[in-house]
Design brief:
CATH class of the largest domain in chain A: Mainly Alpha
Number of helices of chain A: 15
Number of helices of chain B: 18
Number of domains of chain A: 2
Number of strands of chain B: 4
Largest interface: A-B, 46 and 46 residues
Structural class of chain A: mainly alpha
Order of helices and strands of chain A: HHHHEEEHHHHEHHHHHHH
Strand content of chain B: under 5%
Distance between the termini of chain B: 28 Å
Distance between the termini of chain A: 54 Å
Low-confidence stretches of chain A: 401-406
Mean pLDDT of chain A: 86
CATH topology of the largest domain in chain A: ABC transporter involved in vitamin B12 uptake, BtuC
Oligomer: heterodimer
Chain lengths: 406, 381
């Protein structure tokens, strides 16, 4: 376990995280505007990778192709892929989602699942079930040494390009007219319409931007791993959605943060010894104890009306958090508990359960400190993270609590 | 009005018991015709498989149709049931738990799995359930595939013992006390026709149970939640508790189907529990009609047995169809939700909504409301 190993894992984690972020942005933007999970988004990603590869093969890249010519063909193919996914995103929205807007929630969700299956099966029928191999000619395999760790140049390029794209997206959303329309539509579609915003066009634009980013993500994955399978979009889509929820769905910086965290967590999860991973749980436990004993009671006290904020009452709240579960359970069971104390009690019990879980995980991991998770368990990390987030902080890291519109 | 509409109207205005009777006769006819040699045993097997799908579709309909939540990993509960049965009644650990105990145990464990999925998500918006169940389905499959020491990984578990309806000791006593041969024979279920009737009985029991739940207070609360969660909660319905109940209950039916599946296939491996299986069941519910029990049964039979039937009769659907199967299912889902979201056999509520202007339907509704006021009949929704 050397420091170079850790740095190498961190950089590959950031690379994968950046790709997740490109996909997650589409999920989060669409969710922000329509409160709708676009299940077909993962397939748009796959289409991006396939179109790029097919176009490279179609343009006749072979072993004799020179490096410069290869790069220019690559840029052309990537552009073709982004154009194709943009058109696809627009088309899917136009055909399968727009006619169903305003129907019960289940209906567009089902339509999205159907579209996702149709797209995936079309890829399967056209290109076959075997993974498609990208003719990278070994050019994308070049590597450099960063802080003693060997890192592929392509990984650094992916990180760089993604950062540029994200800055551009921030500018698009914050600094342009259409971005303003997007923000307005996501706040209140009816009100935006009354202000003269063409919400249909704005929503279509949101889909188009999201699909372009996802398509580009597909291009990067195909280049990075050198191959792509027709069913890959499913897993990447699921992970990107997890990342979006982790960061707070509907929140653009949140999607990026969540993706990077997930990417790094996945790489650390299967690349490091359990004894090393245990320290992350220890850190989580320290933070969790801090929240339970200091942050949470203080925030709860702020909710007490000033007139009622007597010293005795405040002490009562602190006691619930400090002596959970004994006092908290007593409070929950008592019929004479007021609303604030009963909410605090439940919160205290949840926090304690989380802390105990973290302590137990740390213990188990320290006990098997030299073992490692097999790589085949990697997909599970994202799912477990998703459930964890939904239990302990459903709004995500950067998300704010959004009340449902009445 | 053209001819087909007239026929459809004539048929659909027949009383319900006619359809129920027809379905029962058809279900019983298949194995009987097989006994007299008119129908190939392959058809009995097709029937067993279709009925398993019927069970799954009925279970999924509980969450999707009745409560309006989307569960995209329904096959996970099926897998939990199947693996529970397979591990406790096969040579893998040398165990042979009694059939009835395993049926109950499979249902219970699947329900616990449903609780695990539902608890974190159902306090939140319904969409989260879709994505978490999707993830859960994959976790279950990956676990089955990766935990070599328990599940044999991709090789699966073979040699699941046939179900014994009574304990071995009791059946031996029956033999020695001179019970007829056929009786001791059907106490151990090991022929296709016996499996067929076993699954059929469970399907009928499930349908009766679901039909009653649907009309009960709980069922009506589910429907209220489906139509408008906010309005329902303000009428005093505990939304998260009832949604959880619906998910757990439907998981139990999935577990039952899994247990039966493990028994009659005598072999299970992770490829039976792919995400696509969940999609197929979703497609069955959407095609048949969300929230309509006869619709869901029809949907499952149409999508599972019909392709095979057509393949038997002609060579239109030979091996080629397998390649297009999932594509067709995807297209069916999209077309149905766009053009006929109420499904082939819509439930009563959809039917009323769809024919609000139709004087014929209006008269029926008026009559029903009249009956209700007079106390003749419970409102059927």
């Amino acid at each position: 376990m050397s420091i170079e190993h850790v740095i190498g894992l961190a950089i590959s984690g950031l690379t994968v995280g950046m790709i997740y972020a490109l996909i997650a942005l589409g999920y989060t933007m669409v969710y922000g505007v329509l409160e709708f999970i676009n299940f077909a988004h993962g397939e748009v990603f796959t289409v991006g990778g396939y179109v790029m590869t097919a176009s490279l093969l179609g343009l006749g890249v072979s072993d004799k192709t020179s490096s410069v010519w290869f790069w220019s063909l690559l840029v052309g193919s990537a552009t073709a892929a982004v154009v194709a996914t943009t058109a696809l995103g627009w088309l899917v929205e136009r055909i399968a989602y727009r006619p169903l807007r305003g129907r019960p929630r289940l209906i567009p969700l089902l339509s999205a699942i159907g579209v996702s299956i149709v797209l995936q099966q079309l890829i399967l029928l056209i290109f076959g079930g075997a993974p498609i191999v990208v003719p990278t000619l070994g050019i994308t395999a070049a590597s450099v040494t960063v802080f003693g760790a060997r890192v592929r140049v392509l990984a650094l390029m992916i990180i760089g390009i993604s950062i540029v794209l994200m800055i551009a997206l921030t500018w698009l959303v914050k600094g342009t007219r259409i971005g303003k329309a997007m923000r307005a539509t996501s706040q209140d579609m009816e009100a935006a319409e009354m202000m003269g915003i063409n919400t249909n066009r704005t929503i279509a634009f949101t889909f188009v931007v999201g699909s372009a980013l996802a398509g580009f993500g597909g291009v990067l994955v195909a280049l990075y791993y050198g191959s792509l399978k027709y069913s890959d979009g499913f897993l990447y889509g699921l992970k990107a959605f997890t990342a979006a929820v982790l960061g707070g769905i509907g929140n653009i910086p949140g999607a990026v943060l969540g993706s990077l965290l997930l990417g790094v967590a996945e790489n650390f999860g299967v690349g490091l010894d359990l004894g090393f991973l245990a320290w992350f749980f220890v850190a989580g436990l320290v933070a969790g104890l801090f929240v339970q004993f200091i942050v949470a009671p203080r925030r709860r006290v702020e909710h007490i009306a000033v007139q009622a904020r007597t010293e005795k009452y405040v002490r009562e709240v602190y006691k619930i958090y400090w002596f959970a579960p004994y006092l908290a359970v007593k409070r929950v069971l008592s019929p004479r508990t007021d609303a604030l104390l009963s909410v605090s009690s439940r919160h205290a019990i949840r926090l304690l359960a989380g802390n105990l879980l973290l302590a137990a995980m740390a213990g188990v991991f320290f006990a098997n400190s030299t073992a490692r998770f097999a790589a085949k368990w990697q997909p599970v990390i994202a799912f477990v993270a998703l459930v964890f987030v939904l239990v302990f902080r459903p709004t995500g890291i950067l998300g704010e609590h959004v009340a449902e519109k009445v | 009005m053209d001819r087909t509409t007239t026929i459809v109207r004539r048929v659909s205005s027949l009383p319900n018991w006619v359809f129920v009777l027809a379905a029962l006769v058809a279900a019983i006819a298949v194995p009987l015709l097989n006994q007299v040699g008119l129908v190939d045993t392959a058809w009995v097997r097709v029937g067993i498989r279709s009925m398993t799908y019927v069970l799954l579709a009925l279970g999924l309909n509980l969450v999707m149709g009745e409560t309006g939540l989307l569960n995209l990993g329904y096959v996970a509960f099926f897998a939990v049931g199947a693996y529970t049965t397979a591990l406790l009644s096969s040579g893998k650990f040398g165990l042979q738990y009694p059939f009835w105990l395993l049926i109950v145990l499979s249902m219970l464990l699947a329900m616990i799995a449903g609780l695990m999925v539902g608890l974190p998500t159902l306090r939140l918006r319904g969409d989260y359930l879709a994505i978490v169940t999707l993830a859960f389905g994959e976790i279950v499959r990956l676990t089955a595939q990766n935990m070599q020491s328990v599940t044999n990984g991709p090789n699966g578990i073979t040699g699941i013992y046939p179900p014994r309806l009574v304990t071995e000791g009791l059946s031996e006593r029956l033999v020695s006390s001179g019970a007829p041969n056929w009786l001791t024979d059907i106490l151990v279920i090991n022929e296709p026709i016996e499996y067929y009737f076993m699954v059929l009985i469970f399907v009928i029991l499930t349908i009766v149970l679901l039909n009653n739940i649907k009309k009960s207070r709980i069922g009506r609360a589910w429907n209220a939640l489906r139509e408008d969660e906010l309005a329902a909660s303000s009428m005093g319905i505990n939304a998260s508790k009832l949604k959880l109940l619906s998910v757990v209950f439907s998981a139990g039916i999935g577990g039952l189907a899994g247990s039966l599946y493990a028994y009659y296939s005598t072999f299970i491996n992770p490829t039976s529990f792919l995400f696509m299986q969940s999609v197929i069941v979703v497609c069955m519910v959407v095609l048949g009609g969300m929230g309509s029990i006869p619709g869901v049964v029809l949907g499952a039979i149409v999508l599972d047995a019909l392709p095979q039937a057509i393949r038997e009769i002609s060579s239109i659907l030979d091996t080629d169809f397998e390649t297009y199967r999932m594509l067709v299912f995807g297209i069916i889902i999209v077309l149905m939700v766009m053009f006929r979201p109420e499904g082939l056999v819509p439930n009563a509520l959809w039917r009323r909504e769809a024919h609000e202007e139709d004087p014929h339907e209006l008269e029926r509704t008026r009559q029903r409301l009249f009956d209700l006021e007079e106390g003749h009949q419970d409102l059927e929704v």
